[in-house]
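User: Hey, my collaborator sent me this sequence without any context and asked if I could get a structure. I don't really work with proteins. Can you help?
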Amino acid sequence: MSIEKDEIYPNCPITVRTVEIGGLTKSQLFQKLKQHSILLNKFAEQLFANDKFIVSDKIYSVKTVELKVRDLGFPEGATIPQVYKKAKQLDLKLCPLELGPYLRLNYLDQPEGYLGKPAWKNRSPYCAVKVATEIFSNDVDFPKGFYLRKIEGVLWLRGYIADDLHVLDPNDHIIFCQN
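Assistant: No problem. I've predicted the 3D structure and written it out in structure-token form, which is a compact way to encode the shape of the chain:
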């Protein structure tokens, strides 16, 4: 199977969002998620607790692009390092880690990712959206970043673990920032 040139970013279907982030402490951001009944898994909580998760005291806007791994030229999928390298070549950049919680708060109409869909092992769940961020630890047991998911009507901000050999599915959704 070959991908036609016009199917690769920026000539592919994308979702663009402008998200305002910053201005809250980690504690305030965590409380805001709770106020909106957004659940976190243990990996998201681990990211929140880490000193490398820094929040900005100033409010600023970022423009994001959501696309599929295949839209970066990987019809068979690719590893996270391959995806990040290709995104950089296409002038996309990694998102600040704090974008994950703010994006979750702004993306409340995410499609359901559970009902009638199969459960997959070692793969992103249906309708999950990864936020491409700098990876802070090569430890396989330390979360690599956040992803957004809606399960049985409940919004989640989840952290995920993976190693450099894990292949993302070509249909996995991922968010980068635009320059």
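In plain terms: Helices lie at 26-35, 42-49, 80-89, 99-106. You can pass these tokens on to your collaborator as they are.
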